[in-house]
């Protein structure tokens, strides 16, 4: 029996999902995945950093039939109940509710995620064990991952490939933990989200690791550097905006600082990739001009490994919520805000899927095509910061 061809991926492109770090903003990523799931565009490979690594583990560590259920369970577990339906109150009151939610997170942590170290000497500036050098303890996250992620399934051959990035504390080097090359545990996922000084480093095989976002918050370069290059359809979710208005208040300055610090550097990575791709093409052309006696099987194999005949389509999905320009937006785990972000991720991904720009023909020499979201239809969008 012939396998049914997906009209949204008739050429059978490898599907990749790239997920940034961004704390509570990561609910947007869940909505994006839901739309992909419903259109049978589930990833062959998922690459994540920080909250993106947690979402990646929830997807790669469960069979397709229950992935959305596990994602929903996680976000329900870590969100704060709102005292009132946010859709029924004015904007100013919604902002006050969000501010209180952020304060609650700072004071009490997030159930199933992290808890404050109430009697730690670390805030006083005194020395503690390296694994305790933080304001919060993420042991609860290890328990949650144990409940919601089947790590045997995640590490079994033939499943979804998953890569999570972290930074080695002592050297500042980026480490990519990949289930195609090693056994992945909850500690690898926790390490990817260990953002100091809030969260402690995680020790793996003797080395301490911090959040991969300290090195690069958008792990697109992990995909672009992967060899051999193959024809791919990559959905890249951006949670932070590199562009924004000039700030005028302390909160706006802090918000802008966070956005710029953690925004995607994808433009630079894409430009570097295209330059390399052109050089590889030239190298192949020059190799073809060599006399037959100068060519070797080794040289031909090395050229084939570069995969310079491949084309990558990158679909960028930017989180559009302004969150009242509050610096605490990434720790706003208000249930209403989580639901809004999930819905916006779903709606944006649906727009990208309906547009399906990757289906348009491109020349064989095209190394990469970046697809932005099409303009919004003239319909009212749900209100949120």
Features:
12 helices, globular, alpha/beta, two-stranded antiparallel ribbon, nine-stranded mixed sheet, 385 residues, disordered C terminus
- SSE sequence, one letter per element: EHEHHHEEHHEEHEEHEHHHEHE
Helix content: 25-40%
Radius of gyration over all CA atoms, rounded: 22 Å
Distance between the termini: 51 Å
Oligomer: single chain
Mean pLDDT over the residues? 90
> Which outline best applies?
globular
Describe, in short, the structure shown.
Helix 1 runs antiparallel to helix 3, helix 1 (27-38) packs across helix 12 (335-355) and helix 2 packs antiparallel against helix 3.
Describe the protein's architecture and organization.
- There is one protein chain.
- Helix 1 (27-38) runs antiparallel to helix 3.
- It is built from twelve helices and eleven strands.
- With 385 residues, the protein is an alpha/beta fold.
- Strands 1, 2, 5, 6, 7, 8, 9, 10 and 11 form a nine-stranded mixed beta sheet that branches. A two-stranded antiparallel ribbon has the order 3-4.
- Strand 1 (14-19), helix 1 (27-38) and strand 2 (45-49) form a beta-alpha-beta unit.
How is this fold's topology laid out?
Layout: E1 14-19, H1 27-38, E2 45-49, H2 51-60, H3 67-78, H4 91-108, E3 115-116, E4 136-137, H5 139-148, H6 151-155, E5 161-168, E6 174-178, H7 186-192, E7 202-204, E8 207-211, H8 220-224, E9 232-238, H9 250-262, H10 266-289, H11 297-306, E10 312-318, H12 335-355, E11 368-371
Parallel strand pairs: 1-2, 1-9, 2-5, 9-10, 10-11
Antiparallel strand pairs: 3-4, 5-6, 5-8, 7-8
């Amino acid at each position: 029996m012939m396998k049914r061809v997906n009209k949204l991926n008739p050429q059978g492109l490898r599907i990749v999902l790239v997920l940034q770090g961004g704390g509570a903003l990561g609910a947007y990523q869940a909505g994006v995945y839901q739309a992909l799931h419903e259109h049978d565009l589930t990833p062959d490979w998922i690459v994540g950093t920080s909250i993106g690594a947690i979402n990646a583990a929830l997807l790669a560590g469960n069979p397709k039939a229950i992935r959305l259920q596990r994602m929903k369970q996680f976000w329900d577990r870590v969100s704060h109940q709102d005292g009132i339906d946010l859709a029924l109150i004015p904007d100013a009151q919604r902002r006050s509710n969000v501010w209180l939610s952020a304060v609650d997170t700072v004071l009490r942590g997030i159930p199933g995620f992290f808890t404050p170290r109430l009697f730690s000497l670390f805030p006083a500036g005194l020395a503690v064990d390296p694994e305790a050098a933080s304001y919060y303890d993420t042991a609860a996250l290890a328990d949650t991952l144990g409940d919601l992620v089947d790590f045997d399934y995640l590490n079994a051959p033939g499943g979804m490939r998953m890569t999570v990035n972290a930074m080695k504390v002592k050297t500042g080097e980026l480490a990519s933990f990949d289930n195609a090359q090693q056994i992945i545990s909850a500690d690898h996922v926790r390490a990817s989200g260990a953002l100091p000084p809030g969260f402690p480093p995680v020790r793996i095989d003797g080395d301490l690791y911090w959040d991969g976002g300290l090195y690069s918050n958008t792990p697109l370069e992990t995909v672009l550097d992967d060899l051999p290059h193959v024809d791919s359809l990559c959905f890249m979710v951006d949670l932070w905006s590199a562009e924004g208005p000039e700030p005028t208040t302390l909160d706006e300055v802090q918000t802008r600082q966070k956005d710029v610090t953690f925004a995607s550097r994808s433009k630079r990575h894409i430009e570097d990739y295209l330059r390399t791709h052109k050089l590889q093409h030239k190298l192949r052309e020059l190799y073809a001009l060599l006399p037959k006696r100068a060519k070797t099987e080794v040289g031909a194999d090395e050229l084939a490994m570069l995969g310079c005949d491949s084309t990558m389509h990158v679909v960028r999905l930017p989180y559009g919520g302004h969150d009242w320009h509050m610096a605490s937006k990434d720790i706003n785990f208000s249930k209403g805000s989580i639901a809004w972000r999930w819905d916006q991720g779903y709606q944006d991904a649906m727009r990208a899927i309906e547009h399906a720009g990757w289906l348009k023909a491109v020349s064989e020499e095209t190394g990469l095509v970046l697809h932005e979201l099409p303009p919004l239809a003239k319909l009212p969008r749900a209100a949120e910061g």
